[in-house]
Amino acid sequence: MPISNEDQARISAAIRAAEQKTAGEIVCVLARRSSDYLYVPPLWAALLALVAPWPLVIFTTLDIRAILVIQTLIFVAVAAALSYPPLRLAATPRIVKRARAHRASIEQFFTRGVAGTKGRTGVLIFVSLGERYARVVADDGIAAEISDEQWRCALDLLLDNVRCGHIAEGFVAAIEECARLLAQHVPPGGAEELPDRIYVI
């Protein structure tokens, strides 16, 4: 597990304390990774298997059967090697990982009910460890009041801590900064709409 039960309790307590200052709702999600990227090993294996015969044809005297056997072995070996999750993740292009993590953050925004708060003042703090991706997603009601640059302060606090391996501290710092920003536009009051917890997926 990326964070302990004690760390999860600390983050929950930070959310409860933050929501004493504002009617905005804060939800945290920590993903080990945003996708399994199961299509990556066969794609790389197929590409290398397609390229491999050409040097063999040009620079060797191997017959076609031997080349086909080598081509098949290359496909199997590469696909098997990249099935190991850390290698599979490393072999996935960065742009693909960022796009998948971005999509996962939006999915979590809706799945966790952040988009369904009464005043549209929900905020999602999302981290995907495998992709090294983090994002603060604000609902329409508050996004119009707080600029991306202001949210960036919360994100920087989160990232600085996560890079050092202090995941819980990063979430707590980001929660406190989000609460400070929310309190300027959304005063406290109203019913509790969402659980005060971090979802680890």
Give a structural overview.
There is one protein chain. With 201 residues, the chain is α/β, with parallel strands linked by helices. The chain has two domains: 139 residues, Diaminopimelate Epimerase, Chain A, domain 1 (Roll), CATH 3.10.310.50; 52 residues, no CATH class. Helix content is 56%, strand content 11%. The chain contains nine helices and four strands; from the N terminus they run αβαααααββαααβ. A four-stranded mixed beta sheet has the order 3-2-1-4, with helices on both faces. Helix 1 packs parallel to helix 9, helix 2 packs antiparallel against helix 4 and helix 8 runs antiparallel to helix 9. The chain is elongated and about 80 Å long. The relative contact order is 0.22.
Instruction: Calculate the terminal CA-CA distance, rounded to whole Å.
Output: 10 Å
CATH class descriptor of the largest domain: Alpha Beta
- In percent, how helical is the residue content? 55-70%
Supply the number of helical segments: 9
Poorly predicted spans = none
List the domain count as a whole number.
2
Number of DSSP-assigned strands: 4
Output the CATH topology of the largest domain: Diaminopimelate Epimerase, Chain A, domain 1
Which outline best applies?
elongated
Instruction: Evaluate the radius of gyration.
Output: 23 Å
The fraction of residues in strands falls at: 5-15%
Given helix and strand content, the structural type is: alpha/beta
Q: Could you write a compact summary of the structure shown?
A:
Helices cover 56% and strands 11% of the residues. The protein is α/β, with parallel strands linked by helices and 201 residues long. Strands 3-2-1-4 form a four-stranded mixed sheet, with helices on both faces.
